[in-house]
Amino acid sequence: MNIADELLKGSRLALSRAITAVENEYDDAVSIMQTLYSHTGNAHIIGITGPPGAGKSTLTDKLAKEYRRQGKTVGIIAIDPTSPFSGGAILGDRIRMNELTLDQGVFIRSMGTRGSLGGLSRKTSEAIKILDAFGFDVVLVETVGVGQSEVDIVKTADTTLVVLVPGLGDDIQAIKAGILEIGDVFAINKADHEGVDRLHTELEMMLDLNQDKIEWRPPIQRVIANRGEGINELAEAIEKQIVHSKESDQFVNRRTNRTKSELLAMLDEQVGRYVRKQLSDYGKFDELVISVEKREKNPYAVVDGIMTTILR
């Protein structure tokens, strides 16, 4: 029996092996995804994003426990910075979610960014589909926290939860990162810290400025994640957003746009791989690089020439 079939029968070992296969681009990765694809589309994907130090890992942990209390199964993908030596994730959010690892209704996987500037690994969407096919009700995707590139999560999630904290200049961060545009729900963590009222007021004012452009006004929920305070109310706010998105066209539109983006990304990858292979066979690429560097040729004409030759 292959990995995909074992996974569909509930094997957690096969689940781990499937994610490893797609993450490392093993030979059977494509066949695994082809088998699993028809079993996807059932889980609700919640992206959890925000600046470094906002307490995203703790909040993810508490939110997962709240969903378990409701009887829902939870898959967690924690995106971590990548080790320059091994290529693996180096922070290890599973250490911070230690209690959840014993729960058979929860599966946690740390994944490295692997150079992706958006804070999301290129293989994140495949890992989400694998967890979805396994049968998890909710998939939480916690991003690495790299500032402006955090907006990438909106291409992956059904619901985007933006976590902010007082005292880190989050008002400026929110404007820079376009967080108003991507946030479906806002959580102000560490709400017992000084400056929480100011941050809350500034967020409300910024939402007022965008009121004409959006059908859904993102709620702002104060939480103290390390104490578990406000988590139930936050889960309720997320549920209201889910209901609203499904009643409007937002849910369907997001999934359609996601599929479109994934197809284009796969095409880019395949075409890029083909072009690089042809360049290797072509054998004159290094000469062209030198001629461009010496300003004997311009890069635009060189690329046009290469594409014409390869795609002829």
Short summary of the structure?
Helices cover 49% and strands 12% of the residues. The protein has helices spanning 3-8, 12-23, 29-36, 56-69, 93-96, 124-134, 170-177, 179-182, 196-209, 231-247, 250-282, 285-293, 299-311; strands at 44-49, 74-80, 106-112, 138-142, 159-164, 185-188, 220-222.
Tell me what the structure shows:
The chain has a seven-stranded parallel β-sheet with strand order 3-2-4-1-5-6-7, sandwiched between helices. It is globular. It has 312 residues and is an alpha/beta fold. It has helices spanning 3-8, 12-23, 29-36, 56-69, 93-96, 124-134, 170-177, 179-182, 196-209, 231-247, 250-282, 285-293, 299-311; strands at residues 44-49, 74-80, 106-112, 138-142, 159-164, 185-188, 220-222. Mean pLDDT is 84; it is low at 83-90 and 115-119.
Mean pLDDT: 84
- Overall spatial form: globular
Major sheet = 7 strands, parallel
Proportion of beta-strand residues:
5-15%
Considering DSSP H and I runs of 4 or more, what fraction of the residues is helical?
Answer: 40-55%
Residue stretches low in confidence (pLDDT < 50, at least 5 long) are 83-90, 115-119
H-E string = HHHEHEHEHEEHHEHEHHHH
Distance between the termini: 43 Å
State Rg.
22 Å
Number of separate helices? 13
Number of strands: 7
Strand order of the largest sheet: 3-2-4-1-5-6-7
Could you say which structural class the secondary elements and strand pairing correspond to? alpha/beta
